[in-house]
Amino acid sequence: IAELVAVGTEILLGNIVNTNSAYLSEKCAQLGLSVYYESVVGDNRDRMKAVIASALDRSDVVILSGGLGPTEDDLTKEVCAEVMGLPLSEDPHSRKRIERYMKEYKKNHPDRRVTSNNYKQAQVPEGAIVLDNHNGTAPGLILEENGKRMILLPGPPNELHPLFEQQVKPYLQKLSPEIFYSRTVKLCGIGESKAAAMIQDMIDAQTNPTIAPYAKTGEVHLRVTARAKDEQEGKKLVKPVIRELKKRFGEMVYTTKEERTLEEAVVKLLKKNKMSITCAESCTGGLLAGRIVNVAGASSVFQTGYVTYANQAKRRLLGVKKSTLREFGAVSTQTAKEMASGALAAAKADVAVSITGIAGPDGGTARKPVGLVYIGCSVQGHTIAQEYRFSGNREKIRDNAVSAALTLTRRCILENCSKKE
Question: How far apart, in whole angstroms, are the C-alpha atoms of residue 64 and residue 343?
């Protein structure tokens, strides 16, 4: 049984978001460790001591993040040592590492003074396993006492993640007799309720592995998890379930890789078919283009995009007809189609996708309410447009519109091109 404790008053005040606990929870689950409790405590010695003592009493492994820095309010190491009854002493190896780091820092920042409190981070509890931090000065620590273990990690995620992957994960793998191996099947173009209905028989009959559906913005993720003695056995258990899910959902499955996003799948498909893409956006104001260019290597498929918020811009940049806007309005199937075909011609691209709608909170009418969005897609001259009705606030409507546009783009490419994913 593992327990997570995030340390820092800045988390309690909402100054920073506690992403460390989400990351560590997922990693613990993959390692076969059960996480029953997660806590956040501020930089207060007494409250920290009470939280840590309670966690240590009810859990086998307590993983703490934050509070290992050089300042007076960085108390995690000191409090943990006190709870376990371990004295602090300087670790010569950590001292040398900090000295090297400080020397390099001073060379690169001659105008800044290196303060001696940095060496506080070389003080470690007696008998601790010291974990070298290659991305910062504060080392990680593992404390073992009477069958209990405390793992102390630095707070910055760019220090915590590599430290966990490289040194903590191998340590924890030795503690658990079994692991949880997971794969995620990512779907687009289908809602959570319909997806769940299509696999209800599999869910009813499941034992090991299990399937859990999760609703995301414009997507559904199906996580398949197997309990196994090792990763090899986990892969063997999960493989037939993944195969069956692919069979049932077909082209709605855009990836089975946890790290791959929908925009990455679209960019990959464009590259495979040697196609370029452009965007013509109104209510989303460049969000779609932003999602595409977030993908490394997107420059090979994306050259330019258009944000045509005003009707005049739609006419001038995309060639949307004045009569179309007058007769059908900016938010219409006809305008979405003309935006897509106009962008295709202007950018000389192979694929164009357009978005026009009412994101709110104002501007809606009984005939065209807030959340009404039209998305057009033109692939090599073949143009379609679809109507969508999204709910929620302005941000949610715009995010849903972008996800729907990526889904429609992917579908149109698959339907019009020979090279599938």
Answer: 52
Interatomic CA distance for residues 366 and 343, integer angstroms: 30
- Give, as one character, the DSSP assignment of residue 391: -
What's the pLDDT tens digit per position in 227-242? Answer: 998 889 999 999 999 9
Q: What is the average pLDDT value for the chain, to the nearest integer?
A: 94
**pLDDT digits over 252-297, tens only?**
999 999 999 999 999 999 999 999 999 999 999 999 999 999 999 9
CA-based torsion, 388, 392, 393, 395: positive or negative: negative
Q: Quickly tell me which residue has 């965007």 as its tokens.
A: 279
Handedness of CA 61, 64, 70, 73 (dihedral sign): negative
The closest alpha carbon to 91, from 117, 120, 133, 65, belongs to 120
Cα within 13 Å of Cα(4), Cβ side? 22
In our burial notation (b when 16+ CB lie closer than 10 A, e otherwise), range 105-115 reads eeeeeeeeeee
- Dihedral, CA atoms, 306, 309, 313, 319, nearest 10 degrees? 70
> Is 208 within 8 Å of 195 (Cβ atoms)?
no
Per-residue pLDDT at 173: 86
Q: Which residues of 130-168 are buried (b: 16+ CB within 10 A; e: fewer)?
A: bbebeebbbbbbbbeeeebbbbbbbbbeebbbebbeebb
In this predicted structure, the answer to whether residue 418 has a pLDDT above a threshold of 80 is no
Dihedrals phi, psi of 124, to nearest 5 degrees:
-130, 150
Phi, psi at residue 320, to the nearest 5°?
A: -65, 130
